[in-house]
Structures
1.
Amino acid sequence: MGPQVTIHFMGSRLLLFAALILAVAVQAADKPDYKLGHSHINGAFDEGPRQKPVLLPGIGEAHLPITVKNPEVQFWFNRGVALLHSFWYYEAERAFRWCNKLEPDNAMVYWGLARSAMNSERAQEFLREAVKRKNNVTERERLYIEAMAAGQLPDPYQDRPNDGNRRNRESMAILEKLCVKYPDDMEARAFLALDTMGSERYGAEMIIREVLAKLPDHPGAHHYRIHNWDYNQPEQALVSAKRYGELVPGIGHALHMPGHIYSIVGMWNEAAISMDSATRAEKQYMKDSLTFPFNNWNYGHNRHYLSYIQEQLGMPKASMLGARQLIDAPKDPKDNNDEPRSPHSYGIASLTRALLRFERWDAILDGTTIPWREAAYVDKVNRPYFEARAWLAKGDLRKAEKSLATHAALKSDLLEKHKQFTELYNIQSLELKGRLAIARGDSILGLGWLAEAAQKEFDNQRGYADPPTYPESLYNSLGEAYLVAKSPVLAAQAFEKALDLTKMDFFALSGLVRTYAELGQTQKAEEAMAKLLFVTADAEPGIRVIEAAKAIGIKAAALDGAPQPQRNYLRTSLEKYGPEKWESYAAPLLDVRDASGKKVTLEQYKGKNVILVYYLGKECAHCMEQLHNVGKRKDDWARLDTVLLAVSSQTPDKNAKAIEEMGALPWSLLSDEKYVNARRWHSYDDFEEIELHSTILIDKKGRVYWGRFGGTPFNDTDFLVQQVERMNAAGF
């Protein structure tokens, strides 16, 4: 056990500490912001990366010559452009920030920073800096800057509307001028393809072909082709889907995007390989960079997509394990909260979808398997829907009607305050009405409502390449209902419609095997069975719809109905990309000294949770306020078996004096005089060479579970208590 920490505040000590905060605030009033962890160059640098870039492998290559004095700037600038082409904006910004440190007045470096900041206020700040310096570069570089400025900076002409479409046209016109005037500039063409993809597919494809004719391995050209055909004619992108992942194996998004194409065309094994590789690469990067699932914009979507693909292969156990990874991952009040696209929300969506599709009705109803949230309105809508489905499946109409009534009561509130969920709600309402009517014996009315819901769900999902927003294809449900109603012709039509929406969908294939067998169309039944056997070759045993198809007695050899040959997902080794599961990371070395000069390490606190705070010394009023606020929760930290460590660059002597002045604190004040530990723990800005604020949660095994780093101390003590409770409950 390490140095003893007194977990209490006497009333007088609390008042003394509060008075100290006020005094420090007065003393710090005249100090510049950078002394408090903020950028002294530009406020836009307060967000984004604060550590120098590293040589990441497998990011592809790009070459965009710019005006430089230092050759190292060109090196990192090219890497930044390559990272932009794979939408890895955080790492691209790191590369451009290093360029900025080496050449602070380079206009194109600010252009790169603006592209990395993605249409934000920060991007506008960077763009203004680029525009200020554009006369110091070549005409070609000026056109790059002017094209972006035309699209993103506020309209300089105040006498006309600030029309976004017009601005985009003006921006593209400058980019087109750049491409025409400099025919050898392939990067300009790649960015023009990016701006036109999806809206002008043929034009974008022609630009991409021009780039690839000269640079066959250009990462952006392959990436943008995938996006260009993602929602329409996906077969056009199959060659690039294969090549992109081979060229850029070090970026999660580059491994992820081919999975979109493979999913749409029904190549479920290849899709699973793509998405699984991507999640592994993302988890490896997070482990190496001391970042978390909520810091990675693509990770939640990627793991959610993988769970859906695993369901399409008949692997509900793997799907739900992945969903639990998202649910159990550390939350964050800013980046992983109750928003529909947060990792936590994706986890709940994946879990509920798998439970429903694989008929785990008791798990839906047990009140513990699904972590429904009171604060998330989407859960308020979904919970009665899923519970009604479960009660209907179990044949308890009374309880199903009660859940339906709860669902129906949401309508007025939904229309007034939460219109974004209206479409989902309306489909759910129609479906539930139809199912209830069928359960009551009114098949004609019920099938009509279910058919209407199926068409609405089909229209909503059509042309949408991501995992479905609805938990199952309702045309499959309609087909099953028609089979029960002894209407095999209508059932076949419904299953074919479901298969049109989702290629090689084993739920639809199973329905077609049974339907065509009942109709006596043996050849069609055999064709459906051959595809079903291929897709579900590695499916878990006992899945009802698969067993029902096999029970018909139709014989066939497994046949892949996809447009290209596939590898087998389970027999393809993916370990080289990274770990299968997200876990807390082994903590960096902590080697500091306490107020008496004795060495302190994390090993001394094994078996205890640790809240580790890097602060900027007594002169930082915000830091002292944070220590005060966290310290006030002394009873919570005692209850949760948690100790508090505060590290700064102050010497042990100064820390001893502070303790003497303030008396017994709930913190151990620790010294890191030369910022060696601060650098290890990402609490130091390598670009501006200043200290940063950090708040980090470390579990009882000495692993990092959560962290926040930057120019502002973290003061949400309720969140810290909740996350330590989650750590304890999960056994971390």
2.
Amino acid sequence: MPATTTVRTVCDPNCHANPRCGILAHVEGGRIVRIEAADFPRPEFDKRICLMGFSRLEYQYHRDRLRFPLRRAGARGAGRWERIGWDAALDLIAESFRRIAVADGPRAVALVTGSGANGVLTRGVTYRFAALIGGTAARAGGVDYGVPKGLEYTFGVRASTYFGPGGHEFADAVNSRTIVFWGGNDAETRFVDFPFVREAQRRGAKVICIDPNRTATVSKADLWISLRPGTDGALALSLLHEIVARGLQQEAFLRAHTNAPFLVREDTRQFLRERDVYGGDSTAYMVWDAASAGPRPAAAGRAASLGGRYPVRLANGGTVRCAPAFQLLRELAAEYPPGRAAGITGVPAESIRALATDLATQRPTAIRIGYGVDRWYWSDYTARAVAALVIATGNVGVPGGGISVHSGTYPVPASMMAFRNPDGKSAVTLDMIGLMSAIESGRPYPVKALWLSASNMFNQTAANRGRVLSSIVPRLEFIVVSEHFMTASAELADVVLPAATIFERLDLIPGIFLQLQQPAVAPEGESRSEFAMFAALAERMGFGEHFRRPPEAYLEEALAGQDPLLEGMTLERLRREGAVTLNRPAEPYVAFRDYRFQTPSGKIELYKEELVPHGAELPAYREPIEASPFSPLARRFPLTLLFSHSKHRIHSTFANMPMIKAIEPEPVLEIHPGDAAARGIANDDLVRVYNDRGTVTLRCRVNAGLRPRVLVLPEGHWVKDFRDGDPYSLTHDLVSPTSENYAFYDTLVEVEKAGG
């Protein structure tokens, strides 16, 4: 019998688990024979692994895994390939990149690493290469960006990083008395972290789930609030109205840490400044000081008013009426008393009143806001309205409170990002929406070549897939895809490169712990890590010196920064221990404990004067742009199509694993019994879902846990898993100017029995 060795590595997909799950790979004769969950320095994180993690062994040795470079041998997308060597593949890529850079400028070469990998090297190498050639790299935005953008407006943490320093770690749930899951099914999609919530319940916390449909999280919750999809903003404003009308707001907190008392001019809707009143150059914000019955600079006001309207004499001799920002927010919320909000949302008025009481009195209150809220046209407005609930009740900066997008943690140390910026150079970046525009219209500049790593962009990531395939992809002159399988995106490539897996590459995964992703076995076939691919390509393009050091050297460099979090970290220690706790306090991370906010005012901003041109200075409720019963389209397409997250996949990753297929062999659409009966549809029928943009045929399941007029389909199924068409072509690509986010859920459709 060959000797067995055990290697610790880490699973690192886009599951938002913190920490990512450690895996022990047991190796015999150069082959992994068994995997199991690894331990951590803190026992509460031991044995974390989900079904997707267990499927990694099938993933590693899957019969369909790509093992050799391929070049397109027929028309793009026709499925004809020829095997080529690495030298031929890299020569072709280098020549194509040079040609396009000469013709259209180096920014015309775009390199994208998606959310399928999160290592310092694997995720950072496309940024490094793009910086060196003067090309374009991908940045966060366009997908899952609406809620973080709204929270950026409010708290000042950049939307692309709000998932870290803006939220609370999941372990902080044990400090909460009220926990609200708003638009997220964390019991399934954050399965490995959810035990902290169950522990909070055992300690007496009340768990509330706000979701249109009955989910696994609803089954674990103490209270379920079911609302019409897309009306979350109206519910949030109604809750705020109840809190304020009953005097449950924390006024000392609002005065000290928010721009609630700042005076807003009625004529311009801009903040009143000291120079407006006294002349000079001071841009200090003004408040109405109740003690002196007049306007004063915010720093000097002894008793700043939060309500009322006041005439203010200006330095130019005129008079303008002003009101504190909180007065304006109060008036907005007053438009949504529980009775009216009930008619909009479908939530009973008495439920709204009871929920407002819980939020304001059963403190600390934590809200964890999910992508069920994010993927709507007005999602940034909704996020700001929901955030106002924890702000008004003083639940910011305290253990057990806050508003988190899933969770949060300490920001990644700067030295761990430095690999992306060789010699101080940085790549220009575009988000998903900007990238699609650059390819299609040449704005802000043309993009003609695209490299994709750890991304299945052309499966479900870009909205209105049918238009993407017909109008955008054909404008790309050259596509390279680094992948493990022949995905929908790889099928459109000119060159496909076989990528190394988590068991075949060296990398560093940040989080609560630093974890070393280290090779357990040699790469299958001719697979290579992304670092090795770009190192070889850089040699051909004249800057190979920036990749000639071994990967270990770059990781040592990343650990050698001055950030206190990294004190005592070395690569040798990580090899020895596998996972090492950051040099940080033992208690869970809590955002904004110092009450410092990187906003224009340095305060939490409930009112945004820079959004006045958009009419978005306050988080007003607006009906969904499409998925509304008041939409003109609703007569023909009366059903809202929601895409849930599956507990068996991370988007399209793992969708082709045998053990996953055994549980979920095909896509299944869920439909309410009343909607099914009205259309002559029975359980397990084949149905056709359609609108003016596309159509898809699949099997259906009748589910009484859905709201009427709502369909639910787990996203991430590969396009080829559908019998006809695909659901990702049903979505529209309308984008709000303030959120820059695809509104995948803001979609209307109709359904009929297949063949009907």
3.
Amino acid sequence: MVISCVERLKKVRLYQLNSWHSLRLIGYNTFTMTYHSRSIAIVSQQLPLCPPLPRVIGPVEFDEFRLLWNHLDQVLAAGVEREFILRCVALKQKKRKRRMIIAEQVAYQNECRQALRCTLARKLLQESLRTFCCRLADSPVMQRFCLSGDLEAVRIPGHSQLQRYESWLPVAEMRAVITALTNQAQADDAPSTLGLEAPLSLSTVWVDSTCAETNIHYPVDWILLRDAVRTLIEAIMVLRSRGIRYRMPEPSSFLRKMNQLCIKMTHAGKGEKRKQCQKAILREMKELAHTVQGHATRYCALAEEMPEPRGWAVAAQRRMQAILEKLPQIIHQAHERIIGERQVPNSEKVLSIYEPDTSVLSRGKSGAQVEYGYSLFVAEQRDGLIVDWDMPRSPESDIVMLSAGVTRWQKAYGAHTIRVVVTDRGFYSKATCNTLKDAGIANGMCPRSPQQLAARLEEVEFRELQRRRSQTEGRIAIVKQTFLGGRLHTKGHAHQSAEMAWVIFAHNVWVIARLSILSKQKIAA
């Protein structure tokens, strides 16, 4: 009986707006949009027919949780979801060099919609890939939001598919999707489309910078040697377990020896004896590293000589080659700093063998004099919506990032949309003052000179803008701790930039949904 009802509903050619409690019916008609001077046809498809959510009586926290996901669904359905699908379809057709047939495009658009919603939900819940799979399989609210269930069955993507969803769109395209959402929030029809009390204003932005930390341990020189030896030995053990063998001692003995040396290094003592003991232990570590390097080189050659290379052999070989390329530099760095007692320039330091793009950021913060990661530039408007961000591969000064940000704002939102920029004294310079003046933007930056600051504090408007700047620190903490989870969890700058783009997108959708809830509560009151 249920199946026959579903089959009849699939024949309906109607389009109905997304609603949290109603059946979602959508026809098969198409509409055309222009993208990069090309006409892209988006095919409307039927969304899953979800059963009604159970009525839960009791905890008010669950009612608030359910209400939030209801408004998140409405924000996506207001237009940003369609923008995301449009860009996905355009890139797909560009790669295939032909238009997809209707059935292919309908299936791909459904997958794009699920990629958007699953990634957004995981960023908001801050759960691991495997934990989120279980949450999605267990929660009717999450199933409805992520479009994973219908009247027949519940289909949950695996953890590998969830990971692929996070790189569904390039960073440039994700930035365009976020810009479209911001432009929609500041449009005159924002109260009707997004449920806001009034359109959000971008006239004043507050700018700050921070460190997006990479997922590495504290960069100690002899621990880098331990990491290199451990990675090489583990790759060798993979090859030996598959039948590729070369005469050598038991690989686990090298790991045991390196662990013993690390324990000795930790308990080396104090004073001058500590230095002498550390130098002697490091010489043993270097000798062990050279021995493992020779074994790894031989195993790389054996893996290359395989008549039919397997995936596991290629992966192990690449893993060893990546470490073998860095091992001489790691040994030289440890020798210079511990035995030679000489400094190594930051540009030549190896901070992590797994995250080569990590940089040293000396920001002088309380409790974190030195941080390891990327410079993160964030600009927010008065209601907390992030209007711009940047995370360059190499560390850049606040002055350079602000000048680049002004160019992006004018291109994304128009030349006269942003009228005032407020920063701390780290952004203040003659160059940035001239940049803002040329762009027609009022200067709300905190001057470096105490005399100039005292003069500016006489202005009532400047004092209010600077007082509001403390909220930007809280906004950065929300982005880093709540949405990012403290540090970047992906590897490589390309994947980390994509992760940060999804974090900003999830944060902005969350902000708009919460503003929509407050607006409806005010109307009800």
